Request: fold
Amino acid sequence: MREQHTFAIGDIHGRADLLDTLLKAIDEQAVDAGVSYRIVFLGDVIDRGPRSQEAMDIVAATLDRIPGSRLILGNHDWFPIRILDELTGDKQEMALAFWIHNLRGGATLMSYGLDPDDFSVADLATKLPARHLDLLRGAASHVELAHHILVHAGLAPGVPLSQQSAYDLMWIRGPFLTSTESFGKMVIHGHTVTESGQCEIAVNRICIDTGAYRTGRLSAAWIHPDGEVSYLQTDPQKPGYAGIVSPRYL
Reply:
């Protein structure tokens, strides 16, 4: 049996068009290389961009189509299910307003044909597709490979992987981004848009959030079974095209 390759895809944020392009390019690369593969989405499928509903449909279809594929829960993905499953009363209403206005969840609601200015917690439970909410509820906190740890935001330095908090995995920035200590394996993450607009490699981590919703660059890390990594990215100058690109070393 051929060893399986993994393609980790960075923050999509409602750019279903770029996701469709990138997935087609991944399939073409895998066919050309003669390898089997799975997809790991690093989270933040929704919000900001205009086509969150379609992006969720594509993610769901990909998980069904490609065995072993996973969705990791991003902080934006977490908010709808946090409101429904973890909060009550006034805290639900406050969190809903925060999601819609601060996290650009309003763009997500509009993609479902809903009005963000006339939307309630009760609507969240009944008007978003149950299959999408269940997909978010079943998402992973991280995925560990032989040579890499895949996560949405990052890891807290000095904390074993088994003891990392769900909050840090989805939200952490500063302590993780500035750390130079080893996490045991190279961490591949999204959540924080790279300054260069390219995938960026530091001593202990690789960031593949290239700001797709505003740059037109959606990126993936192609992780080979031996730990080698190459990178694919959509090109805003060539709609419908994605290809191999070079990363930036920090």
